[in-house]
Amino acid sequence: MRWRNLVRALKQLEPSTSISRHFRSYSTELQQPQLSPDLVRIMERRLSAIEHRSASLHNLINQPEASPAEYARANKELRKLSGCMDLISHLRTKQKEIDGLKSLMSECPEDKDMLDMATEELSQAIEEEKRLQSLLLKSLLPKDDADERDSILEVRAGTGGEEASLFAMDIFKMYERYSQKKGWKFEIVDIAESDLRGYKEASAAISGVGVFGKLKFESGVHRVQRVPVTEKSGRVHTSAVSVAILPQADEVDVQLRNEDLRIDTYRSGGSGGQHANTTNSAVRITHIPTGMTVAIQDERSQHMNKAKALKVLCAKLYEIERSRIQISRSKLRSEQIGSGDRSERIRTYNFPQGRVTDHRVGITHHAIDDVMQGGNLDVFIDALLLQQEMDAIASFSSSIDTS
């Protein structure tokens, strides 16, 4: 159902690039799995290796001389392989059925009724084989363990002065509305307002099923082209806003030692009214080994501000560790945010023309108001996730060919 909705949405897009056409083609393939013979050949080599490894592990745990440590390691690896092995078993059964039907058809070339029945069953068996191959291919593709985690959203005004701050507020609220539509919890962590009540910086904690996996490609510079409220001559200005999406971490992922933290408290600033604070409730936490600093003043309670600051700090430290381990598949916050310059854009929001263009997948959506209300963002998000899958398939193919 998800891919049918994507195909319908694609009809509204501007078919201006080969990536857009490739996206349409691949979306259709996902409804009716079609794997190239070369890819099937490559995958079969990997499946054979998995079958051989599973057999070796079973032999090991059946050896009386196996040590408890070896037994435990083998059992743990077998559990990891169990899902894939179940699919392989179903695939092998289906392939035997296909071979049997082909043999039957070659043995009874004159029996029309038998041929008709065997042809129909063969067609169904081949479709099931393709489905199982597609499922197995997805199970073999690299996975990001952080995809199921909650996220920290950070939005920062870049080039463009007050207009950038106003658009930062619009982008922040766009993700808030999108989260609400997804049924996720959106908790504001901190907001630093500009003179015109835009957002110089804003952060939020987003919780729900698969949040980081869905939002991770939103990191980068978002460019806006529109007439600012401060512009009297009606001239269109270009501004930029930086977005970072970080996976949330817990105590198991990041261990913060008290001696590594410097915690300062101070009086909250703000625009007055409900933002005024006469107590030292604002909290600044510095992680001494890295020099990383997080300051939160959104809550009246010092305790709550400290808890939020620690949550953000853990997420940033966890992302640094992820980057060290998986440098090719994740980026540091500084790389995600960039300098905030207009040229480092991933997406452009053109209000005079009513369109939003994602420059990474080369598609344009002509309903900017819907996007800013948190609707139709999936057109871009699903396209980016699909591109990731396509890249993973290409990487999978090349890695096997060079091995």
Could you give a quick summary of the protein structure above?
The protein contains eleven helices and eleven strands.
Describe the structure.
This protein has two domains: 34-140; 148-352, Alpha-Beta Plaits (2-Layer Sandwich). The protein contains eleven helices and eleven strands. The protein has helices at residues 2-10, 18-31, 37-61, 68-107, 112-140, 161-182, 211-215, 302-325, 333-337, 368-372, 377-401, and strands at 151-157, 185-193, 199-207, 220-226, 237-247, 261-266, 282-287, 292-296, 345-350, 355-358, 363-365. The strands form two sheets. An eight-stranded mixed beta sheet has the order 2-3-1-5-4-9-10-11. A three-stranded antiparallel beta sheet has the order 6-7-8, with helices on one face. A hairpin with a 4-residue loop joins strand 9 and strand 10 (355-358). The chain is flat. The two termini are 37 Å apart.
Feature tags:
403 residues; alpha+beta; Alpha-Beta Plaits; eight-stranded mixed beta sheet; three-stranded antiparallel beta sheet; 11 helices; 11 strands; flat; disordered N terminus
What is the secondary structure topology, with strand pairs?
Elements: H1 2-10, H2 18-31, H3 37-61, H4 68-107, H5 112-140, E1 151-157, H6 161-182, E2 185-193, E3 199-207, H7 211-215, E4 220-226, E5 237-247, E6 261-266, E7 282-287, E8 292-296, H8 302-325, H9 333-337, E9 345-350, E10 355-358, E11 363-365, H10 368-372, H11 377-401
Helix pairs in contact: 1-2, 3-4, 4-5
